[in-house]
Amino acid sequence: MTHDAAVLKAAEIASRVLAPSAGQNDKAGRFSTDAIEALGESGLLGLLLPEDFGGSGLSPRTFAVVMATLAEADAAVAMVYLMHILGTATIVSARPEAKETLVPILQEIGAGRHLSTLAFSEAGSRSHFWAPVSRAHRNGDGVRISAKKSWVTSAGHAHSYVVSALAPQGTGPTDSTLYLLGADTPGLSVAGPWDGLGLRANASAPIALDDCHVASDFQLTEDSAGFPVMLNIVLPLFCLGTAAVALGLCRAAVAGTVSHLKNAKFEHLGQSLGESLPTLRAQLAAMQIDTDGLSARIDDLVEHLEKPRDTTMLRVLETKAAAGEVAISVTSAAMRVCGGAAFSKHLSIERLFRDAHAGAVMAPTGDVLREFIGKSLLGMPLF
Ligand SMILES: Cc1cc2nc3c(=O)[nH]c(=O)nc-3n(C[C@H](O)[C@H](O)[C@H](O)COP(=O)(O)OP(=O)(O)OC[C@H]3O[C@@H](n4cnc5c(N)ncnc54)[C@H](O)[C@@H]3O)c2cc1C
Q1: Does the Cβ of 129 fall within 6 Å of ligand 1?
Q2: Which ligand 1 atom lies nearest to the CA of residue 204?
Q3: I need a labelling partner for 125 at 20 to 30 A (CA). Which of 119, 148, 255, 325 fits?
C-alpha cells in the first residue's frame, strides 16, 4: 500500500464507518468493533508493520495523516488505533529469542485480524508509567506476574496486551521488562468499567493480572530493558499519534463551527451568525490559526523522526505538550462560539471538547512533559 492509498482508505472508513456512529457510540460508551473490522479489512492495522509480515511498512509520515483523518471523525477509534500501532511496534522490536513465536501474531496483525494495545499504567505508579510497581517473578522458563493495570485502551477487546513489570532481579524503579499476554491468558481480566468524560467509546478500563504465567518466548525485551523500548520506540510514536488526534479534533471543531456560523440564523436580522457577528469570525480565525500551527508542528516532528538529530527528543516532547493545549483551547473556543447550541449537545462540538481533554492527562502528561523539557534545556537528568 502506498502513502496515498492509505490516506484514501482512512478517509473512506472515517466517512463511511466512524462519522455516522461516533455520536451514538460516545453516548453509549460503546467500543466500535465495526471500525476495527473495517481498519483490519483495509490493511490499516498493519500500516507500519514490515512487509515481511504482511504489513505495509509505511512511515510515521503516513501514520500521522491517517491518525488525524480518523480522529477528525471519531477520536475514540483513533486512540484505539494508536494504542494498536504502539503495541505492534513493540512486538516487532522483540528480542531475537521471542521472534519465532511472535511471527504468527505479526502475520495476524498484517492480515487485519489481531488488535493489540499497551498496559503500562498502574494504580501504584499512576501516570509515571516508566516505573511499574508490579514485579515479574521467575517461574520455570518464564515468569508469573500479578498487577493492577489502571487504564488499558481496548480492554476486553484487544487480542493481546503489551504489559510492563519490574524485572525479577531489577533493582531500580525503571528496571522494567515488557511481555506479551494474550487476551485468553488465565488470570487476566477486565477489572472495572470505563465511563470517561471523553473518549468514551475506547474501553480504557482497568485490567487485573492475577498470577499470570508468561512463557519466556513471550518476553519481548531482555530483563530490565523495557524502559529503553518505552523511550525510543513507544514514546516518539505515541507523542506523534496523540498530536495527530489533537489535530483531527481541532479540524472537526473548526468545521463544526463554520457549519454552525453559516446555518444558524438571526431571523430578525436576516443574517447568519457568521454574517452578523465579527467577534465570532475573529474567534473562528484564531481557531484556524492554532489548528494550522499544530499541523506545522506535526510536520516538523515527522521531519525530525525521518532525519533524527540532537533536537529530535525535545521535539517529541514539545509536540505532545503543545498539541494537548491547542486541542483544549480550540475546542473550548468552539464551545463558546457555538453558544447554547453546543452546550445543549445539539452539535458534536461538546464531544470534541470532552475528547480533547484526554491528551493532556495521558502519560507523559502535559505537566510531566513541561518538567522534562525544562530539565532537558537545563542539562539536568530526566529520571
Ligand atoms: C482515555 C485514556 C486512555 C488511556 N489508555 C492507556 C493505555 O492504553 N495504556 C496505559 O498504560 N495507560 C493508559 N492511560 C493512562 C494514562 O497514560 C495515565 O497514566 C493516566 O491518565 C494518569 O492518570 P492519574 O490520575 O493516575 O495521574 P496522576 O499521576 O495521579 O497525576 C495527577 C496530576 O499530577 C500531575 N503530575 C504527575 N507527575 C508529575 C510530575 N512529575 N511533575 C508535574 N506534574 C505531575 C499530572 O500531570 C496530573 O495533573 C489512559 C488514560 C486515559 C485518560
Answers
A1: yes
A2: 3
A3: 325
Q: Is the peptide bond before 168 cis (omega within 30 degrees of 0)?
A: no
Distances in Å between the alpha carbon of 105 and those of 50, 62, 101, 131?
13, 23, 8, 27
**CATH code matching the domain that covers 117-222, chosen among 2.40.110.10, 3.90.550.10, 3.10.450.50, 3.40.50.300:** 2.40.110.10
User: Which residues 6+ apart lie within 8 Å of 148 measured at CB?
Assistant: 122, 123, 124, 134, 191, 206, 208, 209
Confirm or reject: Cβ of 147 under 6 Å from ligand 1.
Answer: no
Protein residue with least CA distance to atom 35, ligand 1: 367
As a whole number, mean pLDDT of residues 158-182 equals 97
The answer, yes or no, to whether any atom of ligand 1 lies below 6 A from the CB of 206, is no
pLDDT mean across residues, the chain: 97
Residue 354's pLDDT band, with cuts at 50, 70 and 90, is very high
**CATH code of domain 3-115:** 1.10.540.10
Core vs surface per residue 121-138: b (16+ CB within 10 A) or e: bbeebeebbbbbebbbee
- Nearest C-alpha to atom 14 of ligand 1 is from which residue? 151
Q: Look at the pTM and tell me if it is higher than 0.70.
A: yes
Judge if the beta carbon of residue 148 lies within 6 A of ligand 1.
no
